Amino acid sequence: MTIRERLEENEKEILSPYATLSVNTRGRLREEEQCDIRPVFQRDRDRILHCKSFRRLKDKTQVFLTPDGDHYRTRMTHTLEVSQNARTIAKALHLNEDLVEAIALGHDLGHTPFGHAGERALNSICPLGFKHNEQSLRTVDILEKDGQGMNLTFEVRDGILNHQTEGNPATLEGKIVRLSDKIAYIHHDMDDAIRGQILTEDDIPAEISEVLGSTCGERLDHFIHDIITHSLGKDDIRMSPPVADAMKKLRHFMFIHVYQNPVAKGEEGKAEGLVETLYEYYLRHIDKLPADLLALLDQGEYRERIVCDYISSMTDRFARAQYEELFIPKSWHY
């Protein structure tokens, strides 16, 4: 018996009857030989962790565009916080921790530079539309490894695609990540907003604080405990009605006071204009795209889609550098 097979047997003995077992995966897009050490979801997690798209998350905006400070979240730190929340819940519920970690680490791989401002820009200018969850799936299926994709399992791919509010993941592990994503950004975006003096704890409405707690840490702890308490031994991942209602109200509060705050978001119009300008430029100069993307064009992909592929893969820094190179005049010298 291989190490992988022993680990798979351990899953059968330890995990909940509602857990997604590695041996029960619905498989990969392409068949491949099993690893002798790692079960399939652990292998997927490792592939995501080592891919280039994951490394680029460190220089992509979470909420605050180019903040002046070292402690504001980036898209990578957001991803790590989602992963940690999801693993805590999965471990307590005896669900598949490797699967939740793989989904969590991969859920934002297709996100644009400049956060949701970049996503809005591509969605508005590209006639095919643009959604970062769909782009994350496209990244793992097609774009990574020079156009070969990572050939992940169905369960990880499903969780990545369905991590947004309107999604309906096929596994409990995917449902954990879907909730953990919301918990993470509510928690850390509030923390960053307080750090940036956009909010104070006293600004949180009493009807929310009375249910969830009066600090960021208390609210995070309450969310996680509530999910575990109300999901234990059930074939579902859920919150209690009072906490779910308070979370909905807190998200609404955050949209008004942070996500639409003119002080915090004043530069986003410039970022959207930058992304739209790059899109129009590369659509006219398609030959300037990398060879692996041009190969997709030869395979029948739409020009608009592969331009979105290129721009969404950019970090904030690279996008600004490309814009400066293409559109900002340089001093003449000889």
What's the gist of this structure?
The protein is an all-alpha fold and 334 residues long.
Beta-strand share of residues: under 5%
Secondary-structure class: mainly alpha
Question: Which stretches of 5+ consecutive residues score pLDDT under 50?
Answer: none
The averaged pLDDT comes out at 95
CATH topology: Hypothetical protein af1432
Give the overall shape, derived from the CA principal axes: flat
Number of helices: 17
CATH class: Mainly Alpha
Could you describe the largest sheet, including whether it forms a barrel? Answer: none
How many separate structural domains?
Answer: 1
Number of strands: 0
Helicity, as a percent range: 55-70%
Offer a few descriptive terms.
17 helices, Hypothetical protein af1432, single chain, 62% helix, mainly alpha
